[in-house]
Structure formats: structure tokens, C-alpha cells
Amino acid sequence: MAVFIRVAHDKDRVVLGALKLRSSLAWGDHVEELKALPETQEVRTEHVPNAIVAEVGGEIVGFVTVLSKKGAVRAELEDLFVAPELWRTGIGRELLAEAERRAAELGALSLHVVAGEQARPFYEASGYRFAGMVSTDFAPAAEMFKDLPQVCNQS
Description:
Blueprint: E1 4-7, H1 13-25, H2 31-36, E2 51-56, E3 59-67, E4 74-82, H3 91-105, E5 110-115, H4 120-125, E6 129-134, E7 141-147
Parallel strand pairs: 4-5
Antiparallel strand pairs: 1-2, 2-3, 3-4, 5-7, 6-7
């Protein structure tokens, strides 16, 4: 399966929102609460330029959003969603690696994520370390981080 990684476009916003909700519902937890919250069904307009999508056969099957300002020490992984039928195929790992690469290019020393109970093993297997528990709309979740390799920009 060939996966094409690219930057998201404004026209992708509706597809990304639908994928975000479908992936969130696939766990079977907090279904009614997820359906009731608008933010679980959309990607904010201002986040689209920071989103990276994965396509298979020309269709968007996953995306990740990295929030960081150039030169910021810490970047935030806002969203990472993959179509449930393609879980455990490596697409999430590819998106995460691209998010880490882009955060490091912006100068971030670490990438942080808030991970629910089901996602925590994925991040741990990818080298993320536990930093503490935080409250979310649904349940406590783990705040995790990974130190990033520094990119040497030669002029």
C-alpha cells in the first residue's frame, strides 16, 4: 500500500473533520459526548495549514496537526487520526514521524501530546515519555513528550 504524505489544503477541512469523528467513535467510548461536541467533528480553520495528511489511492486516510511557532522550544501534537480500517498498517507511525520532523525543522526541542488510554501505548512505542495526567472533556489523559533531534540548518 503506497502512502502519499502532503500538507493539508483548505478544501480538505470537511473530510478531515469527518475522519476525526469516525476515528474517535471507533473506540466505542464516550459516543454520545463525542457526537455532541462540535470540536470532535471539525478541524479548526487556523489549524489546517499545520495539518499533514496521508492519502492512499487519492483518498485521505489520516492526518496529524502540529502546532508550533518558528523557534518555539515545545511543539504540540494537536490531532493524529487514521481511518479505523487502516489502524495498525503503519500510517499513524508515518504521520507521527513526519510531525516530529516538521516540529524539529521549526526548532522545537520536544513534541508534546495528550493521549487517551487507548492511544498511550502507541505513543510509548514511538518513544514518548509520560509527563503527568491532565483533565480532558471525557476522562483524565496522559500528557506525553518526546525529545526531538536537532536539525542543523546550514546556510
